[in-house]
Every structure is written in C-alpha cells, then in structure tokens.
Amino acid sequence: MCQMLGLTAGRFGTRFLGRRVMALVTPSSATMASHGHGHADVSEIADMSKPMYCDRMDTPLPDRAYKDELNAADKTLKEKEKGPWNQLTKEEKIALYRLMFRKTYPEMKQKTDEWKTVMGGIFIFLGLTGLLVWWQSIYVYPAQPRTFDSEWQAKQIQRMLDMRVNPVEGLASKWDYEKGQWK
Amino acid sequence: MSLPKPVMRGLLGRRLRFHLPIAFALSIVAGAALKGYTVTEPRKQAYADFYKQYDAVKEFNAMREAGIFESVRPSGE
Questions:
Q1: Where are the domains of chain B?
Q2: pTM above 0.90, yes or no
Q3: Using a CB-CB distance cutoff of 8 angstroms, which residues of chain A are in contact with residue B66?
C-alpha cells in the first residue's frame, strides 16, 4: 500500500523511468548486458516485491520498520524493549523511535519551497505556449472571414436592434430608441 | 507524559451533525435569495413593466421602416 501510493513521487520512480528510457533510446544490444553503470544502479533500487517503508501522514504505521539491518547496539536495545518500558531512558526511547521511523510527524509536515518550483514551471510553460500561440496566429491562421470586420459587426448589431432582439432584458432593452444611443 | 486518550469513534457522525444543518440552511437561504431578490421576481417585474407600455402596432411599424421584413417593405418603397 505504502509503495503504490508513494511511488510516483518517490525518488525510486525517476530511477525506473531513467533506465527504461535509456533502454529504448540506445540501440546497442550491449546496454542490457553491460556492467558498471547498470550494476551501480541495481543496489539502490528497492525490491518492490517486499514491504517498503514510507513517510506518509495518512499511514502512521508503515509496512516495515525504517532500519532493518540492526547493528549489535541496536539489537541489545531491541532486547531491552521487550521488557518493561518504564526502564528505558528517554534517549533509548528516542533511539527506538528512530529505528522504527525516519521522520517524525512535525518533520513530515515541514513546509518546503516546492510550490515555488511548481508555479515557476507552470508559468514558464504558459509563457512558451503563449509564444507558440502568437507565432501560430501570424503564420498559420487563414484570412479572417468578412463577418469579423468592425463595419460588418456594426451593421450586424444595428440589424439586431431593428429586429428588437431580446427587448425585455437583453440587447434591445439596453438601447434607447428615442435618442438612438445606448442607455 | 500521560495525555488524555483522543476521541476515536463517531468522527464522521460528529462532522455530519455539525455540517449538515449548516449546509441545509445555506442552501435554503441561497434558494430564497435567488427566487425572491436576484432572479425570478426582478425578471417577472421586468416583463410586467415592459408589457405595460407596449404598443405592438407601433413596434411593428418601427421594425417595418427599418427594413427587416421580407413580406412587407418600408412604406416608402
């Protein structure tokens, strides 16, 4: 559960994408069999078939403890945890917490500056799109139909007023017929 | 270090009991405002005022002079 929810945003996600894209882009068959760079990645990528740890506000108890390779000191602490807890010192309790979890809730809730990156990216792409749209309106669009000319539009509105279009609440109701001007 | 045990149950019920009356009240107020003040009554009034002073023949002649009809041309032609 943890792993599915967190994957797309997690750092492992980009790793997977990178390797797949590399495999598609490079034509040589040696890519898959190559050592060195490929193997350097392997040790970092998590085994998705096993329970994973995650820091999520809506999942207080992740599928796995944070540290599962315990050294000798950690192991003795874990043994002491099996006894009565009021015999643990404050530091020991904190150490046990840190074995189990990576971040505390306040640490998870810390605000980041990510929104600045997001908004910046949005504006950059909006700007690029705007440039594209501008170029397009000059070089791609065909000639405007004659109905767009301001002369034609004026005659169009005059005809609508003559026809008394929407005389109660709409267009013709806004025109003063005696004075020949807008109200 | 002994905190009181937080409320574990009935959270949705509590939220609904708080928010539903407010939601209903606001909806009713919005509906009444829409009906009485902003949309329906003013619109009815606008139509009533329009037709109080409406002379159909005069309007027809004005439209005819403007030349929009095909079955009857302006009186000049």
A1: 11-66
A2: no
A3: 162-163
